Amino acid sequence: MLRPLISTNLAVTADGKISSVTPRPTGWTSREDHARLLELRADADAILVGRGTLDADRMTLTVPNRSAQPLRCIVSRSGRIDPAHPIFAKAGGDIHLLVTGENPPSLTSPQDSRITVHHQTLRGFLHTLASEFQVRRLHCEGGGQLIRALAELDAIDEFHLTLAGHTLFGGQQAATATGIPAEFLPRSLDFEIRHFDPRPELGECFLSYARRR
Fold it and tell me: Using an 8 Å Cβ cutoff, are 165 and 14 in contact?
């Protein structure tokens, strides 16, 4: 399958959970973690996020001090985005909306003219980004359900993680890096550690893994 090189980035608690509550707890990871997030974005031609994460974090998917901003790609079953969302107020890359549900919305708000809608599968969308929009590096910032979908396609090449050992979220149904605990992936995926940066003064550790193929 023709697709971009795909990286992901998440912060997880000491018990392996990601923040899946709304509104999000603010400032639960360090400023250094946020700086790392921006560094990872800066290497990407496009940023990918699920609509739930986009809404919960009020994301604009931009990179400070970069003239050519990455494409801003959103995955949604319904395709509905609040016209007042901050992503429309912040100048950035073109917005591409992948609608995976059966009935794509009719776009009628003034903001809709700024959106390119794709009604296809995630696999097809990855091919479209590579073949039609010359996206070579795609960076995904969650949520867990979207990262699981990428893992099911074996389409994750780099996995970046901040282990925030200072925090526990807990909960049997609390989301992990691959969504709410459910069935195993179709098969295990082998990764190797490429970067290990413990920050005991922060209670965090920055890790990067590469897919072993």
Answer: yes
For residue 136 the two structure tokens come to 């070579």
Q: What is the pTM of this model?
A: 0.91
Distance in angstroms (rounded) separating the CA atoms of residues 117 and 175: 28
The architecture (CATH level 2) of 5-20+27-211 comes to: 3-Layer(aba) Sandwich (3.40)
Domain ranges of the chain: 5-20+27-211
Give the number of residues written for the chain: 213
Token duo for residue 53 = 């994460």
Query: pLDDT per residue over 163-213, tens digit each?
Result: 998 988 888 888 888 888 888 888 999 999 999 999 999 999 999 999 999
